[in-house]
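Raw record, unedited: Integrase catalytic domain-containing protein
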Amino acid sequence: MNVKESSPRTELKERIIITALTAFKKNGIKSITMGDVAALPKMSKRTLYELFEDKETLLKECVIYHQYLSKKMIEGIVAGSTNVLERSFKTSLPNQKWVTDVTQINIKDERIYLSPILDLFNGEIIGYSISKSPNMQMISEMLDKAFEKVKDTKGIIFHSDQGWQYQHYGYRKSLEEHGILQSMS
């Protein structure tokens, strides 16, 4: 399905896909039949089968639609988080500009991940976490340590790359709640 098209048929397909996605998430894919999907937007099974050959075709369209929405959401997040820092890595006062990145460290046959927050004023590590996997818990721990150390974070520019961790809703919300301006490149 090309979600950029706009016709009554395409709009109907999109409405069915959204309805099916909701039903699949709520009740499970196996338990939902094509009849159940047709009943939700109150349409005939015939109309449903004209648009989608079978349940497998509907599922494929649901996956494509979900991926499209996910991509658009990520593009919106990245577009909303501009590069405020603009390669200006110097600052005259502490806690004006922070930077972070996840670094993989190989020790013998093991990988560990380090996630520090560096103050660009003097290179001080404000907070950090170490983990065996680069997950959101690691990022949350890093932020918690920084917020414990620095109470007044309002107005800090916090720069990172565009990694998935920094696009995560929880991360962005935490920065916003602490008055921190997110910057990404």
